[in-house]
Specification:
The protein has helices at residues 2-14, 19-37, 41-60, 69-74, 76-82, 87-116, 121-149, 156-166, 168-182, 189-218. The protein is mostly helical. It has one domain (1-8, 17-218). Helix 9 packs antiparallel against helix 10 (189-218). The radius of gyration is 18 Å and the shape is elongated.
Length: 219
C-alpha cells in the first residue's frame, strides 16, 4: 500500500506539471479578480473567501481526468482489477495520493492569495482550514468522474461536467463556514461540521462508485 501511494504520488506530480500547474492556475484565477471588480479593498475582502474557494475548485478539476489514465494506457488497470487487494482500497489510496500532490499545495498557497484579496488573519485561517477539510471531498467526487471517463479518448471535459455540479454543496458549506468565522454573529461550527460530514460521506461513496465504474468500463 505504501509503494502504491508513493507511485501514484510521483505520477500525480509528473503528469502535466502536477502541483505546479494547479498552483499557477489557482494564482491566475484569483489574481485576475481585482482587475475585474476594481480597487475597492472592502469589496475584495468581502468576496475574497468565495473567490479563493472557486479558484481552488477549478484548479482541482485540472488533473482529475488523469487519475486513472496512466494505468489505462500501460495496462496496469487490468492488474488492479485482478489483484487480491480490494479495488475500493486501491482507489482510496490513489485519491489520497492525488489530493496530496494537487490539492494540498493549493491549501498551502491560499494564505498568500488571501493577502492578495485583502482578507484579515481570521478570514485567511478559516479559508485555509475549510479548504484543508473540504478539498478531499472534491477529489473523491472527481474519482467517480475520472473512472467513468477513463475509457474515452477525450474525457477531460466530461469529467469536469460530471464533477462540477456534485461539488456545489462542498463549495457552499466551505464558503459559508469561512464567512461565519469572519462575521461574529454567524455560527462557524454548524457549516464546518456539515463540510466535514460531506468529506466523510464522499470518502465512502466516491471510491466505491469509482471502483464499480472501473469494473464496468473494463468489461
Amino acid at each position: 500500500m505504501t509503494a502504491l501511494f508513493l507511485r501514484d504520488l510521483k505520477l500525480s506530480i509528473r503528469a502535466g506539471g502536477g502541483a505546479l500547474i494547479g498552483v499557477l492556475f489557482f494564482l491566475t484565477v484569483v489574481a485576475v479578480i481585482p482587475f475585474g471588480v476594481g480597487p475597492d479593498l472592502k469589496l475584495l475582502s468581502r468576496i475574497g473567501p468565495a473567490i479563493v474557494w472557486i479558484g481552488a475548485l477549478l484548479a482541482n478539476l485540472l488533473g482529475l481526468d488523469r487519475l486513472f489514465q496512466a494505468e489505462r494506457d500501460d495496462g496496469s488497470l487490468d492488474l488492479m482489477l485482478m489483484q487480491e487487494t480490494p479495488l475500493v482500497l486501491t482507489v482510496l489510496l490513489k485519491c489520497f495520493a492525488h489530493w496530496t500532490a494537487t490539492s494540498l499545495p493549493l491549501v498551502i498557497a491560499s494564505p498568500l492569495l488571501g493577502l492578495f484579496m485583502n482578507m484579515d488573519e481570521t478570514g485567511i485561517g478559516a479559508t485555509m482550514l475549510t479548504l484543508f477539510v473540504g478539498s478531499p471531498a472534491i477529489t473523491f467526487i472527481g474519482a467517480v468522474g475520472a473512472a467513468v471517463a477513463v475509457a474515452l479518448p477525450r474525457g477531460g471535459l466530461l469529467v469536469s461536467i460530471l464533477v462540477l455540479p456534485l461539488t456545489i454543496p462542498v463549495l457552499i458549506f466551505g464558503v459559508s463556514a469561512t464567512y461565519a468565522a469572519v462575521e461574529e454573529p454567524a455560527p462557524f461550527l454548524p457549516p464546518f461540521l456539515i463540510l466535514i460530514a460531506l468529506t466523510l460521506f464522499f470518502a465512502v461513496i466516491g471510491p466505491a462508485a469509482a471502483a464499480l465504474a472501473l469494473r464496468y468500463t473494463s468489461d
